[in-house]
Specification:
The chain has two helices and 14 strands; from the N terminus they run H-H-E-E-E-E-E-E-E-E-E-E-E-E-E-E. With 248 residues, it is mostly beta strands. The chain folds into three domains: 41 residues, no CATH class; 68 residues, OB fold (Dihydrolipoamide Acetyltransferase, E2P) (Beta Barrel); 110 residues, Beta Barrel (OB fold (Dihydrolipoamide Acetyltransferase, E2P)). The strands form three sheets. The chain has a five-stranded antiparallel sheet with strand order 7-6-5-8-14, with no helix packed on it. It has a five-stranded antiparallel sheet with strand order 9-13-10-11-12, with no helix packed on it. A four-stranded antiparallel sheet has the order 3-2-1-4, with no helix packed on it.
Length: 248
């Protein structure tokens, strides 16, 4: 009987090789690690290209295709490249010793010279690091909730003690206290990931709600630009103070 080719695919570290080896042994098939094959070919091509000074496709400069002055441009060398399960995370050092941490679905090996383009609409001015709260304008409601971000939120009773319905308040929510859900219907609000900034030990996200409000989230979870999310804020994390209160 003619043997068929069986290919096993899946996420990183999900057990592909383990299952494939067991299946090959059971069925009497030859086990081939295609990942090792690809890495071996890539290593050979990289070594040969360095010897002959021939640039690979990743190193081609596309400046001639970019209108002058439309983008901010840097050039640098990849220092490290780590696969994060969904994307590659690369550290790039420029000749002026500026360091960039970049996430991309394409792998660029250490030593590769790359050009980096930053579009003006992707540049965002962030709060100074000592700011850790989102600030919103809110209103106390008759049902004991507080309305802000065009939604009604439950809060601890002591937060609005002595306040009257209709009273304007200032709402503070720590960046770290906002929970993002994979399914947007599980949130009080829904929106999408609008901007991502890696800060060394966490990601600082800008989430834009469907109503057009921006809020900032610090998280260790990996999200991609454009991801749809549900937004949850636990009531114990919502701080309420009179609108006349001094700002942080």
């Amino acid at each position: 009987m003619k043997k068929i080719i069986v290919a096993i695919d899946g996420y990183s570290s999900c057990g592909k090789s383990t299952i494939a080896k067991q299946l090959a042994k059971y069925a009497g098939y030859r086990y081939i690690d295609t990942g090792a094959m690809y890495r071996a070919v890539a290593l050979y091509v990289l070594a040969e290209s360095r010897k002959s000074k021939v640039e690979s496709q990743e190193d081609v400069d596309f400046d001639d295709r970019i209108p002058k002055g439309k983008f901010t441009k840097w050039y640098g060398e990849v220092q490290s490249c780590i696969f994060k399960g969904v994307h590659y995370e690369m550290r790039v050092l420029t000749p002026d010793d500026y360091e960039f941490l970049i996430q991309d679905y394409h792998e660029y090996l250490p030593g590769t010279e790359v050009g980096m383009l930053v579009r003006p609409e992707d540049i965002q001015i962030m709060h100074k690091e000592h700011h850790i709260y989102n600030h919103f304008e809110g209103e106390v409601l008759k049902n004991g909730k507080v309305r802000f971000l065009d939604a009604e939120w439950e809060v601890l009773e002591q937060q609005i003690e002595g306040m009257e319905a209709g009273e304007k308040v200032e709402v503070l929510v720590p960046f770290r206290s906002i929970d993002l859900q994979d399914y947007e219907e599980e949130g009080t609000l829904s929106g999408e990931v609008h901007f991502i900034l890696f800060k060394g030990n966490h990601y600082h996200l800008t989430i834009r709600t469907d109503e057009g409000h921006d809020l900032y989230v610090n998280t260790n979870d990996v999200w991609d630009d454009g991801d749809r999310v549900g937004i949850v804020i636990p009531k114990k994390e919502i701080l309420i103070r009179p609108a006349s209160g001094l700002k942080e």
